[in-house]
């Protein structure tokens, strides 16, 4: 009887031999089916705060620069707006388009690993990437990062296996893919820039070392430098056009301050370096495959070891990891893990490569890692993190939707005190939360200073929707509350949301509805008093800064 490992290898080889179009269809079906309960969710946080409003501007007016003049490149807006013109404006259509990009990115990971290693490794790396919580959560969220990641990973799939003299077709394809990535998200330029810097280093080493001096190698490095530098041109053209139209090169001043200038301090960069290191090598159980890989390195290389990554490929991957760690410790206001989407598959690729060349336990390690990743979709560590790192974002959408539905049903003419993003959710039906706009006034959050400010303007509202704006897990919240004199405890005390009971006491209201899903909570408060009603849009002050 044929051993199970041989059957698995044969199945993997059959899958790898399938046409890419068929594989894409299979991956798309897998992404859509595994996200089936998420496909009709209303838009979340930065989706409703930037990406969907920006795409709607293009959809309604044809303008590629949104009215709030953030300098994000326009490709995601054009793709979404064009889709809506074809099929109508539907949240389901948006989420399926993002699923298609996630599937295309997984196909790139599969082909990249297949070319560098073999079919079984390709199955393992693709499976682990798809189940990694950060990747899984982003696979239907309308952020530019997953779009840029798909183009970037296809560029990797062409570049990494072709490190010799490039053909013209390879050069054009890689330059085009990196350009499309940069026109999806400007920070995607980090990848070709890092690779171009590596090629320049190798060129200079070739020129200075008699042992390496070779005209052919020189031409090869120069060709790659030209290919990898090209994506900068369309990005510069975009910023030049943006400046011509708006007078701002990198977006309005508040956006630029939040995402760049305010972060250029030694203290912020050092803190960001620490957090980015954790994002790359610890977050959401990615430490487990790294631990398996580190332990495997103490074993000798198998005599029957399959193909392994070359030292040149490992050097490229190391450069890309280091470049992303450093770049995203400086760029961007919020330290969001989704900026690192193209790098997680490379880390998993290295881990799988070590497992299979040092042990016979790669299938077991793959299964254990996949189980750990799946568990991290729902189980949260006792730390703070962005809800979009796993399915916590769904809990936030659900409780916010329930609160909004309660107000719409019981107090349809109320004037609501709330904060962003709910302030936008109740005013903009296109975000999926309401059928018609509700009256609302907005504060920054539900910390003590903001609630005290709201208390002084109590005649302006008769209802409040309060919710989590600074998410921490319940266990971590209890720890921080019990240790108020620690550095994290003091930071938490200064920024924590008051509980619904505390808010009701300070504002003189009554809790009429509340819910809590694993630490994501929302409540509706009612105030029996007269007030000055007004229908006003939520403040747009958040739009330029909550997305990079």
Q: Note the run of SSEs as H and E.
A: HHHHHHHHHHHHHHHHHHHEHEHEHHHEE
Number of domains: 2
Shape: globular
Instruction: Give the uncertain stretches in residue-range form.
Output: 540-548
Number of DSSP helical runs: 24
Report what the structure shows.
Helix 14 (266-281) crosses helix 16 (311-330) and helix 15 runs parallel beside helix 17 (344-358). With 548 residues, the chain is mainly α. The chain folds into 2 domains: 4-388, no CATH class; 391-542, Rossmann fold, CATH 3.40.50. The chain has a 5-stranded mixed sheet with strand order 2-1-3-5-4, sandwiched between helices. It is globular and about 85 Å long. The protein has 24 helices and 5 strands. The longest helix has 26 residues, at 91-116. Strand 4 (510-517) and strand 5 (520-526) form a beta hairpin. Helix content is 60%, strand content 5%. It starts with a helix and ends in a 22-residue tail after the last strand. The protein has helices spanning 4-17, 20-34, 46-61, 75-87, 91-116, 119-131, 133-138, 144-159, 168-184, 190-208, 215-229, 232-246, 253-259, 266-281, 287-296, 311-330, 344-358, 362-376, 392-410, 422-427, 448-455, 474-482, 487-495, 500-507; strands spanning 415-419, 439-443, 463-467, 510-517, 520-526.
């Amino acid at each position: 009887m044929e051993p199970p490992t041989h059957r698995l290898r044969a199945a993997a080889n059959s899958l790898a031999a399938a046409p890419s179009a068929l594989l894409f269809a299979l991956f798309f079906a897998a992404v859509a089916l595994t996200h089936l309960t998420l496909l009709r969710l209303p838009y979340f946080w930065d989706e409703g705060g930037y990406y969907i409003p920006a795409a709607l501007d293009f959809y309604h007016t044809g303008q590629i620069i949104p009215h709030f003049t953030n300098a994000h490149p326009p490709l995601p807006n054009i793709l979404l707006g064009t889709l809506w013109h074809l099929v109508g404006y539907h949240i389901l259509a948006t989420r399926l388009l993002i699923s298609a990009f996630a599937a295309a990115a997984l196909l790139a990971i599969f082909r990249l690993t297949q070319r560098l290693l073999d079919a079984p490794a390709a199955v393992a790396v693709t499976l682990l990437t798809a189940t990694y919580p950060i990747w899984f959560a982003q696979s239907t969220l309308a952020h530019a990062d997953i779009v840029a990641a798909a183009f970037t990973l296809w560029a990797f799939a062409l570049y990494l296996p072709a490190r010799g003299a490039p053909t013209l077709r390879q050069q054009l394809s890689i330059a085009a893919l990196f350009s499309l990535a940069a026109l999806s998200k400007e920070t995607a330029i980090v990848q070709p820039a890092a690779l171009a810097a590596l090629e320049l280093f190798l060129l200079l080493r070739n020129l200075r070392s008699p042992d390496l001096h070779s005209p052919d190698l020189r031409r090869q490095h120069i060709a790659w430098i030209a290919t990898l530098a090209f994506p900068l041109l369309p990005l510069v053209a975009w910023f030049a056009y943006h400046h011509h139209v708006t007078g701002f090169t990198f977006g309005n001043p508040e956006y630029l301050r939040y995402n760049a200038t305010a972060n250029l301090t030694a203290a912020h960069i050092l803190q960001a370096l620490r957090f980015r290191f954790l994002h790359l090598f610890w977050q959401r159980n990615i430490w487990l495959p790294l631990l398996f890989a580190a332990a495997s390195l103490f074993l000798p290389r198998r005599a029957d070891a399959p193909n392994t990554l070359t030292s040149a490929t490992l050097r490229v991957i190391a450069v890309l990891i280091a470049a992303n760690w450093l770049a995203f410790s400086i760029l961007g206001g919020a330290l969001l893990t989704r900026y690192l989407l193209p790098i997680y598959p490379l880390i998993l690729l290295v881990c799988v490569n070590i497992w299979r060349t040092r042990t016979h336990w790669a299938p077991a390690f793959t299964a254990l890692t996949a189980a750990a990743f799946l568990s991290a979709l729902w189980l949260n560590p006792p730390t703070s993190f962005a809800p979009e790192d796993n399915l916590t974002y769904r809990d936030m959408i659900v409780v916010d939707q329930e609160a909004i539905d309660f107000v719409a049903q019981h107090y349809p003419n109320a004037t609501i005190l709330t904060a962003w993003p709910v302030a936008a959710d109740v005013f903009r039906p296109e975000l999926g939360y309401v059928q018609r706009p509700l009256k609302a006034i907005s504060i920054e959050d539900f910390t003590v200073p903001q609630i005290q400010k709201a208390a002084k303007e109590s005649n302006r509202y008769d209802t409040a929707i309060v919710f989590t704006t600074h998410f921490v897990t319940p266990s971590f919240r209890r720890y921080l509350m019990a240790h108020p004199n620690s550095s994290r405890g003091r930071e938490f005390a200064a920024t924590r949301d008051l509980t619904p009971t505390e808010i009701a006491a300070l504002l003189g209201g009554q809790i009429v509805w509340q819910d809590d899903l694993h630490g994501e909570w929302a409540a509706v408060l009612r105030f029996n008093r007269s007030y000055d009603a007004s229908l006003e849009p939520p403040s747009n002050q958040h739009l330029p800064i909550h997305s990079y």
